[in-house]
Amino acid sequence: MFARQAFKCAQPFRQSFRQFTTEAPKRRSLAPVYAGIVLTGAGVGLYRYNSGIATAEAPKRESVFVGGDQGWVDLKLASVEQLSHNTKRLRFEFPDKEKVSGLQVASALLTKFKPEGAEKPVIRPYTPVNDEDEPGYLELVVKAYPNGPMSEHLHSLKVNDKVDFKGPIPKYPWEANKHNHIALIAGGTGITPMYQLARQIFKNPDDKTKVTLVFGNVTEDDILLRKELNELENTYPQRFKAFYVLDNPPKGWNGGKGYITKDLLKTVLPEPKEDNIKLFVCGPPGMYKAISGPKVSPKDQGELDGALKELGYSKEQVFKF
């Protein structure tokens, strides 16, 4: 499993690699139609066009989390959805339903609780999976790990229970077309910051970044956010490719079998010599050790090691969440 301190490939990776094709022809522009419309009179609103649909520019909403010296904010659990035997989607509501979280891409929030009889509270970072522009709530996808104090606590919550949050905690500042091609190498719950980044890229019609995802898990049921990832791949087949690898694949599985290996990465990642690429890594300690080497602290990425170093990537081309 990914918690092990080294990765070995149980079987060769047999999933076929599809090269990125040229960008699909753009839809026929509606600009001439709009250009022919003459807007007169006072109070004409500001409009923007996305996929040919005119929508009013929404006013900027206030944020729940503003960082700096803001203290902890307690949020009430509004709903719980069981995604698998050990994973839940938890929705926490904001007191003001018109406010947004205030998270940027990529950033996370800290969660806190104090176990009964403990001297110090447990504090863990989580990356919400809902769109940062959605007002009124945030959602966490949480997998319960044995002896994981925070994940077990979150799984024990009932509707209307509260949790302390703080943030946002900046990770990697993103702007449209910052890189030509990025690769997301994730294990288990490490998919959440990767999905946050991918979602931001594909919701922006001006961002043309290509994205490759390599996602490792123990079983097929452990693949988090698979529906959302499939939707991205079906909607943007020229720009998004996802490769799944399972420790214990079911019969008939056509994806990768075993662990994420150097041979797999060599096959599917953009080459080190490609212009303006970035590789992101997020997963358990064993994965960092095998793929990129661990980071020293949130502010110190540490040296590049593991498979990515052996494949010729530079420290500057890799970011460890």
Automatic annotation (TrEMBL):
<dbReference type="InterPro" id="IPR001433">
    <property type="entry name" value="OxRdtase_FAD/NAD-bd"/>
</dbReference>
<keyword id="KW-0472">Membrane</keyword>
<dbReference type="InterPro" id="IPR017927">
    <property type="entry name" value="FAD-bd_FR_type"/>
</dbReference>
<keyword id="KW-0496">Mitochondrion</keyword>
<dbReference type="GO" id="GO:0006696">
    <property type="term" value="P:ergosterol biosynthetic process"/>
</dbReference>
<feature type="binding site">
    <location>
        <position position="150"/>
    </location>
    <ligand>
        <name>FAD</name>
    </ligand>
</feature>
<feature type="binding site">
    <location>
        <position position="141"/>
    </location>
    <ligand>
        <name>FAD</name>
    </ligand>
</feature>
<dbReference type="Pfam" id="PF00175">
    <property type="entry name" value="NAD_binding_1"/>
</dbReference>
<keyword id="KW-0560">Oxidoreductase</keyword>
<keyword id="KW-0285">Flavoprotein</keyword>
<comment type="function">
    <text>May mediate the reduction of outer membrane cytochrome b5.</text>
</comment>
<feature type="binding site">
    <location>
        <position position="126"/>
    </location>
    <ligand>
        <name>FAD</name>
    </ligand>
</feature>
<dbReference type="GO" id="GO:0005741">
    <property type="term" value="C:mitochondrial outer membrane"/>
</dbReference>
<dbReference type="Pfam" id="PF00970">
    <property type="entry name" value="FAD_binding_6"/>
</dbReference>
<feature type="binding site">
    <location>
        <position position="151"/>
    </location>
    <ligand>
        <name>FAD</name>
    </ligand>
</feature>
<protein>
    <recommendedName>
        <fullName>NADH-cytochrome b5 reductase</fullName>
        <ecNumber>1.6.2.2</ecNumber>
    </recommendedName>
</protein>
<keyword id="KW-0520">NAD</keyword>
<dbReference type="InterPro" id="IPR001834">
    <property type="entry name" value="CBR-like"/>
</dbReference>
<dbReference type="InterPro" id="IPR017938">
    <property type="entry name" value="Riboflavin_synthase-like_b-brl"/>
</dbReference>
<feature type="binding site">
    <location>
        <position position="192"/>
    </location>
    <ligand>
        <name>FAD</name>
    </ligand>
</feature>
<keyword id="KW-1000">Mitochondrion outer membrane</keyword>
<dbReference type="InterPro" id="IPR008333">
    <property type="entry name" value="Cbr1-like_FAD-bd_dom"/>
</dbReference>
<keyword id="KW-0274">FAD</keyword>
<keyword id="KW-0812">Transmembrane</keyword>
<feature type="binding site">
    <location>
        <position position="125"/>
    </location>
    <ligand>
        <name>FAD</name>
    </ligand>
</feature>
<keyword id="KW-1133">Transmembrane helix</keyword>
<feature type="binding site">
    <location>
        <position position="124"/>
    </location>
    <ligand>
        <name>FAD</name>
    </ligand>
</feature>
<dbReference type="InterPro" id="IPR039261">
    <property type="entry name" value="FNR_nucleotide-bd"/>
</dbReference>
<dbReference type="InterPro" id="IPR001709">
    <property type="entry name" value="Flavoprot_Pyr_Nucl_cyt_Rdtase"/>
</dbReference>
<comment type="similarity">
    <text>Belongs to the flavoprotein pyridine nucleotide cytochrome reductase family.</text>
</comment>
<feature type="binding site">
    <location>
        <position position="143"/>
    </location>
    <ligand>
        <name>FAD</name>
    </ligand>
</feature>
<feature type="domain" description="FAD-binding FR-type">
    <location>
        <begin position="70"/>
        <end position="175"/>
    </location>
</feature>
<dbReference type="GO" id="GO:0090524">
    <property type="term" value="F:cytochrome-b5 reductase activity, acting on NADH"/>
</dbReference>
